[in-house]
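[step 3/7] inverse_fold.run input=structure_tokens len=405
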């Protein structure tokens, strides 16, 4: 039986409870970093990531300043239709393989070579006024020639009909009396192919008008998906370039003229980025093909979490093309298997100029937007956890002391 006075027993219990509380707080101090958890790496860890690796490759850290934005803008423009497809449009009057030609030859009287023929229809000339001979329509074959009576094979590939007319006349001089030739292009096989997410894939013939990208899409019945979720891709030889269809619609310079044998492909592209860390809403966020700035991206997720965000720690993680860095990247830098460089773009929102920079930085598909947690926020959570643990132990101790009494 405890013979101590009641007051002494209460003090002993109280001191014991405080010792337990101190022991709990010490344990939390030792394990605090691992037990409190986190939403992701700290800003300091990210800023030192250039010494880390991604699948054995170096990670580039890029400050989002005016120089970096200008370089990215220039690189983005280098992949526009208006910048890539700059070659002059060839005349569709040029004869190509598979074209069909209609050839007529007229010989002045007295007709020596083509005598006994009839005058050209609609000329009003009597048969004796001259002889007209019509050559059956001919398809330009693989050898690129057509055959003309008393002339033989004539190479017509890449020539205008007027050039072919003169070649026929030169070949008949000395054998026919004052010959004249009329060549007409009945069917031109100069086409482009339109396929993908369109109402009807087809081959569209090109005319002297000079059809453009949107003409090709219109001839195929338009796109199956909304314009702002569609990508249009042009394949020309070994060049393959894709752009958002909405950009081609709004920017007339990107609605380039098509060349023979171009392939226009429409693709469905749902763009999205992922927001993580100290933002008000972590989520995968879709956006339209017309584009999205970093400022708009932050707005889509409700902005920064005021109680947790580090204003100096706004980062965009991206696998960037090697060419986007220009001469600022080490020529010997290692890249991923698909030829890209892991890069982290950093924005310091404590600098007022960053509010302009975030409007000029374009978010791309598959980007990861991450906002690190402020060190003070971690400390506040830590102190709150300590306090909760300590008061809980003291409360339990007081309850036990009361029961003992």
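[step 3/7] decode complete -> sequence:
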């Amino acid at each position: 039986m405890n013979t101590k006075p009641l007051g002494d027993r209460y003090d002993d219990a109280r001191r014991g409870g405080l010792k337990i509380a101190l022991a709990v707080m010490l344990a939390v101090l030792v394990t605090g970093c691992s037990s409190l958890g986190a939403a992701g790496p700290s800003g300091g860890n990210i800023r030192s990531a250039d010494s880390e690796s991604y699948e054995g490759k170096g990670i580039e850290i890029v400050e989002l300043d005016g120089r970096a934005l200008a370089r990215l803008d220039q690189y983005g423009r280098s992949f526009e239709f208006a910048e890539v497809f700059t070659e002059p449009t060839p005349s569709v009057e040029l004869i190509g393989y598979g074209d069909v030609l209609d050839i007529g030859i007229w010989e002045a009287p007295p007709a020596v070579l083509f005598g006994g023929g009839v005058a050209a229809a609609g000329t009003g000339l009597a048969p004796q006024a001259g002889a007209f001979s019509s050559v059956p329509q001919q398809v330009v074959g693989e050898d690129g020639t057509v055959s003309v009576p008393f002339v033989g094979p004539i190479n017509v590939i890449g020539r205008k009909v007027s050039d072919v007319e003169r070649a026929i006349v030169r070949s008949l001089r000395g054998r026919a009396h004052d010959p004249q030739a009329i060549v007409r292009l009945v069917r031109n096989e100069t086409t482009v192919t339109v396929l993908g997410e369109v109402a009807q894939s087809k081959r569209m013939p090109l005319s002297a008008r000079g059809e453009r990208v949107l003409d090709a899409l219109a001839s195929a019945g338009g796109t199956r998906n909304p314009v702002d979720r569609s990508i249009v891709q042009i394949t020309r030889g070994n060049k393959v370039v894709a752009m958002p269809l909405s950009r081609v619609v709004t920017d007339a310079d990107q609605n380039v003229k098509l060349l023979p044998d171009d392939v226009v492909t429409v693709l469905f592209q749902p763009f999205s980025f992922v927001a993580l860390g100290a933002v008000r809403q972590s989520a995968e966020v879709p956006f339209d093909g017309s584009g999205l700035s970093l400022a708009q991206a932050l707005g889509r997720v409700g902005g920064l979490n005021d109680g947790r965000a580090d204003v100096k720690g706004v980062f965009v993680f991206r696998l960037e093309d090697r060419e986007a860095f220009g001469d600022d990247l080490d020529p010997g830098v290692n890249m991923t298997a698909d030829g890209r460089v892991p890069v982290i773009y950093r924005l310091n929102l404590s600098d007022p100029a960053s509010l302009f920079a975030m409007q000029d930085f374009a978010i791309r598909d598959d980007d990861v937007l991450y906002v690190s947690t402020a060190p003070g926020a971690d400390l506040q959570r830590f102190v709150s956890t300590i306090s909760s643990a300590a008061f809980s132990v003291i409360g339990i101790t007081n309850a036990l002391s009361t029961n003992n009494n």
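[step 4/7] annotate
The chain has ten helices and 20 strands.
The CA atoms of residues 185 and 310 lie 70 Å apart.
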